[in-house]
Each structure stands twice: as C-alpha cells, then as structure tokens.
C-alpha cells in the first residue's frame, strides 16, 4: 500500500495516550508491520478508522483510505 499523494510506503499513527509518541509502520501484503523499534506489545490498536499519517508528506486520513487504493 502506498500514500495517495507521494507514493511512500511508510506511515505512522499517534499513540492515543501521548500525542508526541508515534509508531511507524508499513503495510506489506495486507499486513501492518511496525518498525523494529516499536514493541508490538506496546503498539496501539490500528483499525480501518484509525487516523493515519504519511511519514514522507502531509497526507493523513483513515487507514481504510490507503486500503482502497
């Protein structure tokens, strides 16, 4: 999956408990894969309606907007 504006494959979500903490991920073969520096047990739940941000440009929207491309 790629960003609809710039084509990047890296995205992030903000931690629901700390707006300054982000969790970077990519989507490979339909599977959300957090970067290696993110502990999976501490990663926030990410679903189709989760506000998602591109890690390269200003695009942001619901995760399902990426899946529909």
Give a nutshell description of this structure.
It is built from one helix and five strands. With 69 residues, it is mostly beta strands. It starts with 9 loop residues before the first strand and ends with a helix.
Structure overview:
This protein has a five-stranded antiparallel sheet. The mean pLDDT is 88. By secondary structure, it is mainly beta. The chain has one helix at 63-67, and strands at 10-15, 18-28, 31-34, 51-54, 60-62. The protein is built from one helix and five strands, in the order βββββα. The radius of gyration is 11 Å and the shape is globular. A hairpin with a 2-residue loop joins strand 2 (18-28) and strand 3 (31-34). It has one domain (10-67).
Protein topology:
Elements: E1 10-15, E2 18-28, E3 31-34, E4 51-54, E5 60-62, H1 63-67
Antiparallel strand pairs: 1-2, 1-4, 2-3, 4-5
Mean pLDDT: 88
Largest sheet: 5 strands, antiparallel
**Range of strand content:** 35-45%
For this structure, the quaternary state is single chain
- Stretches where pLDDT falls below 50 for ≥5 residues? none
Tell me the strand order in the biggest sheet: 3-2-1-4-5
SSE arrangement, N to C: EEEEEH
User: What shape does the CA trace take?
Assistant: globular
**Helical region count?**
1
Structural class: mainly beta
Number of separate structural domains? 1
Give the N-terminus to C-terminus distance in angstroms: 8 Å
Radius of gyration: 11 Å
> How much helicity do the residues have?
under 10%
The count of β-strands is 5
